[in-house]
Amino acid sequence: MRKRDAIVRYTAPERINHWITAFCFMLAAVSGLGFFFPSFSWLTYILGTPQLARIAHPFIGVVMFASFIIMFLRYWRHNLINRGDIYWAKNIRKVIVNDEVDNTGRYNFGQKCVFWAAIVFLFLLLASGVVIWRPWFAPLFPLPVIRIGLMLHSFAAVSLIVVIMVHIYAALWVKGSVTAMAEGWVTQAWARKHHPRWFQEVLKKQEKNVK
């Protein structure tokens, strides 16, 4: 049941956008691991057959990139680094024990790092993916460039998987984060503790709407 003191953290379009990105990431990551590690080749059957997985993998990647770009346009302003983030990083020990520091806005420094790392690795995946995409684009590039593209694609993919694992762990660690993305709301106590500056901004908007 929705609590009376709940405030909106994410709207329905924002949540749909997030879960489309997450779903595409899972499919791309699982099938990609099946391509990269022979012992994991059985993972490609999640998309039907290995042949179908090879066809679908790049298209899923493009959809994931496009979906994340929408997220980027929504949130980039909230993820700009400021002085408070440096203070947050210096007091990471307090954060580890689930105690927030500084006057955190909508996102803390850790979340901002995940955000910017994701966009960098996604751009690398897109660029390298185009180079190695057979039969559409790969024939346009010489073999040495394709080999570099394969190495870069593998590096970016593994790096992004690690970043997302950190993202998932942090979401599970901070109680209430999963509810925020699943149902869209958080309690005022949660917002006041973890994102006090954002909480004050939300209250000011609510007061203006009432007036």
From TrEMBL:
The keyword Membrane applies. The chain crosses the membrane at residues 20-43, 55-76, 113-133, 145-172. GO terms for biological process: anaerobic respiration; formate oxidation; respiratory electron transport chain. One of its GO terms (molecular function) is metal ion binding. Its cofactor is heme. It is found in: Cell membrane. Keywords: Cell membrane, Electron transport, Heme, Iron, Membrane, Metal-binding, Transmembrane, Transmembrane helix, Transport. It is a multi-pass membrane protein. It comes from the Bacteria. Its main location: membrane. PANTHER family: FORMATE DEHYDROGENASE, CYTOCHROME B556(FDO) SUBUNIT, FORMATE DEHYDROGENASE, NITRATE-INDUCIBLE, CYTOCHROME B556 FDN SUBUNIT. This is Formate dehydrogenase cytochrome b556 subunit. It comes from Tenebrionibacter intestinalis. The lineage of its organism: Bacteria, Pseudomonadati, Pseudomonadota, Gammaproteobacteria, Enterobacterales. The gene is fdoI.
